[in-house]
Specification:
alpha/beta; Amidase signature (AS) enzymes; eleven-stranded mixed beta sheet
Length: 495
């Protein structure tokens, strides 16, 4: 069998446990697929030798039986996760050749289970972007194309490499991070499942920080069941992360029963935007009908402060970024600018950061420093924090009425072409996060499920927003949507 790389995690788990295939065979199949995929630019670093070594160890564990779910499964790892002795650059020049001497908690848990790393995946620089066009490696490319067109499309951002790799069967699953929609938006653009857990469900330790109160790691997979399996593997309390919740992790896969009779699904009126494409509106309506046909009750709900979410997010996230990125100064690691005769450390700091950071990162650092400055802290940062509190209260009020989940579109459009927004006002790019940022601001779980194709033959996704710490229930409802949508389309291979 040469097409083992097309397996889902659940399929591969079954075949590995039944000794129908070995992890090394599965890994070799994936390595071969990755080697022929450079046109997608999904991988920024390939680690075939490490993958083979890990696969051999996984086969030893499998031979003994009683292995964990992710044992022997080949994965791609977003470049934001620190991996010991392997370049972890956050797609930025300023971290050139940075090889951590430690492993992130997420990847440690995966390797402890016997998972396999195929390589590091492309992303927007420091996770700042919605199209993967801010990467020092160049953009990741969506494996999907518009009908009758050869135009290269964005895979979304910031986890564009992860989304492209999963959609193109270059790994069985991938890690992503979500600060304002960076798992769910690229998942919707590429026709895969992207799950953002409740803030605190998955440890952030060892993940290069963008905005610490918003960042959350999660799985990007081919199916909803795979996302449940993956999420179980990486969840749990971590004493190294003070924001990690000390809660018992339920069995998310076991929560998939397909029974949602009596569940109450909210449809927020504020998400009906002026100018929303008819095909997005229809997809949303069809999704609600699928859930109603499965026994759920569909109710209208109100989230009145939604219109303030994007402005609040683009105050808070840059503010935290400006603080987090202050550590990159050329002294301890990464890129260091060459000094001219007579120049001192101040010039070295300034030139290192000017050379090392891309334009979007510089923009957000400057905005963040501005809103935190003495004259503007109250006018911008403090006010944005108050808005965040109101947004969270909106969700609390809705869930207090017995609503089990909220259904919305995942994105305001299908994937757009690379370069199409590059010269536009940056705010137009930021609008890609209009349906997703509220989830991060409120710390809630969310999942994007592929649910249909656009008029140009591109994937469209629906988003479910769950109650805090109720990922299992959200995943079960997502599985019903997945079964109803019957999205079994794959991109035509051109790469």
């Amino acid at each position: 069998m040469t097409d083992l790389y097309k397996f889902t995690i659940a399929e591969a788990r079954s075949k590995l446990r039944n000794r129908e295939i070995t992890s090394l065979e599965l890994t070799e199949s994936c390595i071969n697929a990755v080697e022929g995929s450079d046109a997608l630019n999904a991988y920024c670093l390939k680690t075939p030798d490490l993958a083979r070594e890990q696969a051999k160890k996984a086969d030893e564990l499998l031979a003994k039986g009683n292995t964990q779910d992710m044992c022997g499964i080949p994965l791609g790892i977003k470049d934001l996760f620190c991996t010991k002795n392997v370049n972890s650059q956050a797609a930025s020049k300023i971290l050139t050749d940075f090889k951590p001497q430690y492993e992130s908690t997420v990847t440690s848990r995966l390797w402890d289970q016997g998972a396999v790393m195929l390589g590091k995946l492309n992303m927007d620089e420091f996770a700042m972007g919605s199209s993967n066009e801010t990467s020092v490696y160049g953009p990741a490319v969506n494996p999907w194309r518009r009908d009758g067109s050869e135009k290269k499309l964005t895979a979304g951002g910031s986890s564009g490499g992860s989304a492209s790799a999963v959609a193109a069967d270059l790994c069985l699953g991938a890690t992503g991070t979500d600060t304002g929609g960076s798992i769910r938006q690229p998942a919707a653009f590429t026709g895969i499942v992207g799950l953002k857990p409740t803030y605190g469900r998955v440890s952030r330790w060892g993940i290069i920080a963008f905005a610490s109160s918003l960042d959350q790691a999660g799985p990007m997979t081919k199916t909803v069941r795979d996302s449940a399996i993956f999420l179980n593997a990486i969840s749990g309390h971590d004493i190294k992360d003070s924001t990690s919740a000390p809660f018992i992790v339920p069995n998310f896969e076991a929560a998939i029963t397909g029974d949602i009779k009596g569940k109450k699904i909210g449809i927020p009126k504020e998400y009906r935007l002026d100018g929303m494409p008819d095909e997005i509106e229809k997809l949303w309506k069809d999704g609600a009908e699928m859930l109603r046909d499965s026994g759920a009750e569909i109710v209208d709900v109100s989230l009145p402060h939604t219109k303030y979410a994007l402005p609040a997010y683009y105050v808070l996230a840059p503010a935290e970024a400006s603080s987090n990125l202050a550590r990159y100064d050329g002294v301890r690691f990464g890129h260091r600018a060459t000094l001219k005769a007579g120049e001192g450390i101040d010039e070295m700091y300034a030139r290192t950061r000017a050379e090392g950071f891309g334009d979007e990162v510089k923009r957000r650092v400057m905005v963040g420093a501005y809103v935190l400055s003495a004259g503007f802290y109250d006018a911008y940062y403090r006010r944005a924090q108050r808005v965040r509190t109101l947004i969270k209260k909106d969700f609390d009020d809705v869930y207090s009425t017995g609503v089990d989940a909220i259904l919305t579109p995942a994105t305001p459009s299908a994937a757009f072409g690379l370069g199409e927004m590059k010269n536009e006002d940056p705010i137009k790019m930021y609008l890609n996060d209009v349906f997703t940022v509220t989830v991060n601001l409120a710390g809630l779980p969310g999942i994007s499920i592929p649910a249909g194709l656009s008029s140009e033959g591109l994937p469209l996704g629906l988003q479910l927003i769950g109650r805090p710490w109720e990922e299992g229930e959200m995943i079960n409802i997502a599985s019903v949507l997945e079964n109803g949508a019957k999205f079994n389309f794959k991109p035509n291979k051109w790469w």
